[in-house]
Write a structure and sequence with these properties.
Elements (H helix, E strand, L loop, with lengths): L7 H22 L4 H19 L15 H11 L17 E3 L6 E2 L11 E5 L8 E6 L37 H9 L21 H15 L9 H5 L19 E3 L1 H13 L9 E6 L2 E6 L5 E3 L5 H10 L4 E3 L4 H4 L6 H11 L5 H10 L5 H8 L5 E4 L6 H11 L5 H11 E4 L5 E2 L11 E4 L5 E4 H4 L7 H14 L5 H7 L8 H15 L6 H12 L1
Parallel strand pairs: 1-4, 8-9, 10-11
Antiparallel strand pairs: 1-2, 3-4, 5-7, 6-7, 11-12, 13-14
Helix pairs in contact: 1-2, 5-7, 8-11, 11-13, 18-19
Length: 530
């Protein structure tokens, strides 16, 4: 049955507020007692705030997290656990003990509360005294729920720490807890520990093999699999290290199943930056793991052979090829299209060998990827007198022939190719008139005609021969057959009347002249009959 109780403090607050409000009303209405009422209300409110300033709140004691130095001292104490197990249940009086919070020695220790399972463990940290560590341990069936820290009896002698786990029954003996602690491999609390609780998901066989690998590769001890649940509930929080804390003892040889296990272990703990710290590469038939150098980047060994050959030929010291083990691909960032884009971006187009190699590598890729290599050039100038620039023109023409969409290849070649005829004349596709007929006819019965030589007065009709000679040269070098090359250079079909009209306007604009004579007649006839 619930019982109601008057809240005096609330009454005090509210009553003072009422007096103030009445005082304000009195002030506004100019009552005779206005000054008395508002002064009294404010005075009461001042007392209320003064009293409310004194307040007690409940503060939860913060559980101490062991530092590295503390853990090392605990590890030193646990080092002789087995040999001192006979001391369980001793009184502990007259001995010196170490406080695991402060690391200081106490000259005396009271009996451990709530348990007779107090361990007195010799420590190597204080060889000049018979320093011991006292930990009150029980092993209940339920998880550890509290950590009791005894208050300091004096400032000069800090109190030791007891770790208590109250239980309704003492059926579980201290020896069982000792067994659990022994599973920590004793030194697992020292600096060489690599503790990952999520590795509990690995099978026992995998975990044991991983422990052996970490000892060999990194000189790190991994707690036994059986101890992981116990460590997860241990009152002193065990730090979970980062992969950056791992340092290889030195280059080591691994088997394929070792690599697969390492991949799986790091996948379990969601670590994807393994290759920001280490390199896995093939050295002859062997797989070697070593520390990563600053300028090195790993690429997957399952890439196309042409891509890998290009990387080995021109970026051997920068792009390190991993073994072709499937599990590695997921954690390698520079792969597939990202690798191709990287190579295109990084290519030194002044290096003919590298440029040719990359072009051949791209032959099997998508058209959009090939376009990126073309976009590295503003113009490719081929000099007919000394063949300068021919290697680049030949290489890009060969790549253009591999395009699925030939119209894209035509546009790209039309954009970048220039032919330098002599020191003063350079022509492009726009300068070529591709017409084998000398005369163009208009009218229903072809009664009107214009001679091409009368339209193009600056030798534009001769430009076709330069591209014809280039095509013959490319065909001879085996770039493609002549028919394919004529298609790539958009010379397979003769120019239509519209194309001739457009090229005439282009040449008039290029030479900054006004149409006259036959040129004007052609323009008028074209507009009349087309």
């Amino acid at each position: 049955m619930k019982k109601k109780k008057l809240d005096i403090f609330n009454l005090f607050y509210s009553g003072a507020a009422v007096v103030i409000l009445i005082g304000v009303i009195a002030k506004l209405l100019e009552w005779p007692a206005q000054d008395l009422l508002i002064t009294g209300g404010l005075a009461i409110e001042a007392v209320v705030f003064g009293v409310s300033a004194i307040k007690y709140v409940e503060v939860e004691e913060k559980q101490e997290v062991a530092t590295e130095a503390t853990l090392a001292k605990v590890a030193d104490g646990l080092g002789n656990l087995a040999s001192n197990a006979a001391g369980v249940g001793g009184s502990g009086s007259g001995d010196t003990f170490v406080n695991i919070q402060t690391g200081t020695a106490d000259t005396a220790i009271p009996a451990a509360p709530s348990s007779g399972n107090s361990l007195k463990i010799a420590s190597t940290s204080y060889p000049e005294t018979t320093t011991k560590l006292a930990i009150d341990i029980q092993a209940p069936a339920t998880p550890i729920v509290t950590t009791q820290i005894l208050e300091e009896p004096t400032k000069a002698a800090p109190a030791p720490v007891y770790m208590n786990t109250p239980s309704p029954t003492n059926a579980m003996s201290a020896s069982n807890t000792l067994w659990q602690l022994e599973q920590l491999d004793i030194l697992s609390l020292s600096k060489d520990l690599f503790y990952q609780p999520d590795w509990n998901r690995l099978s026992t066989e995998e975990y044991n093999h991983l422990s052996s690998l970490f000892k060999t590769l990194f000189n790190k001890k991994v707690p036994t699999k059986e101890s992981l649940p116990f460590l997860a509930q241990f009152p002193v929080k065990i730090p979970v290290p980062e992969i950056a804390e791992l340092d290889l003892v030195g280059p080591s040889i691994l088997e394929v199943h070792d690599v697969e296990l390492i991949c799986k272990a790091f996948e379990v703990i969601k670590v994807t930056n393994l290759f920001e710290h280490f390199i896995l590469e093939l050295v002859g038939p062997d797989i070697m793991i070593r520390a990563k150098q600053s300028k090195e980047t790993i690429i997957f060994g399952g890439e196309d052979e042409a891509v890998l050959a290009h990387c080995q030929a021109f970026y051997k010291n920068e792009l390190i090829v991993s073994p072709n083990v499937d599990c590695l691909k997921a954690i390698i960032k520079l792969k597939d299209q990202f690798l191709i884009d990287y190579l295109i971006q990084k290519v030194n187009i002044k290096n003919e060998a590298e440029f040719i190699s990359l072009s051949e590598t791209l032959a099997t890729k998508q058209d959009e990827t090939k376009k990126k290599l073309f976009n590295k050039f503003k113009k490719i100038k081929y000099n007919t007198q000394n063949d300068a620039g021919y290697v680049y023109l030949k290489t890009l023409t060969k790549l253009a022939a591999t395009f699925t969409d030939q119209t894209i290849a035509q546009d790209l070649l039309n954009t970048v190719v220039e032919i330098q005829v002599n020191d003063t004349l350079t022509i492009t596709f726009a300068d070529v008139v591709n017409s084998y007929a000398d005369t163009i006819y208009f009218g229903p019965k072809n009664e009107y005609s214009v001679v091409l030589k009368d339209i193009f007065l600056n030798g534009e009709l001769d430009n076709m021969s330069y591209f014809t000679n280039l095509i013959e040269k490319l065909a001879t070098d085996g770039i493609a057959n002549k028919s394919k090359l004529l298609e790539l250079f958009n010379l397979k079909e003769q120019d239509s009347k519209k194309e001739v009209f457009n090229k005439l306007n282009y040449h008039l604009a290029k030479t900054n002249t006004v149409a006259g004579g036959a040129q004007l007649a052609f323009i008028l006839l074209y507009k009349q009959y087309s």
